[in-house]
Amino acid sequence: MEGEDSWVHLLPIADVRTFTAELFETMRAADSAGNGASAPQALIAWQHTAEVYSDPELLAAALTRDHGEAYGPAPDPRDVA
């Protein structure tokens, strides 16, 4: 990966701190459980977060795109018992 820019630099400083702490805790828990599958998932989630910071229009497009009504409208969480 030498010479490649890291996506981490796209995160605000506060989020870099949160990312680092979360990744450390995830890796520690994964090691304790003997299952490292959660660490790559955490990295992917944070990478997507960085992508949104780099292109806010990407987030707006994803949130406003019509995904159809395959599952119907989401219930108001205050009404769910």
Task: Write up what this structure looks like.
- The structure is a single chain.
- With 81 residues, the chain is mostly helical.
- The chain has a domain at 9-64.
- The chain has helices spanning 13-33, 38-54, 56-64.
- Helix 1 (13-33) runs antiparallel to helix 2 and helix 2 (38-54) crosses helix 3 (56-64).
- The protein is extended and about 40 Å long.
- The model has no long low-confidence stretch (mean pLDDT 83).
Give a short overview.
This protein has 81 residues and is mainly alpha-helical. It has helices at 13-33, 38-54, 56-64. It has three helices and no strands.
Write the layout of secondary structure elements.
Elements: H1 13-33, H2 38-54, H3 56-64
Q: Which regions contain 5 or more consecutive residues with pLDDT less than 50?
A: none
Average of the residue pLDDT scores: 83
Structural class, judged by helices and strands?
mainly alpha
Q: Say how many strands there are.
A: 0
Can you summarize the main beta sheet? none
Distance between the termini: 49 Å
Provide keyphrases for this structure:
mainly alpha, about 80 residues, single chain, about 0% strand
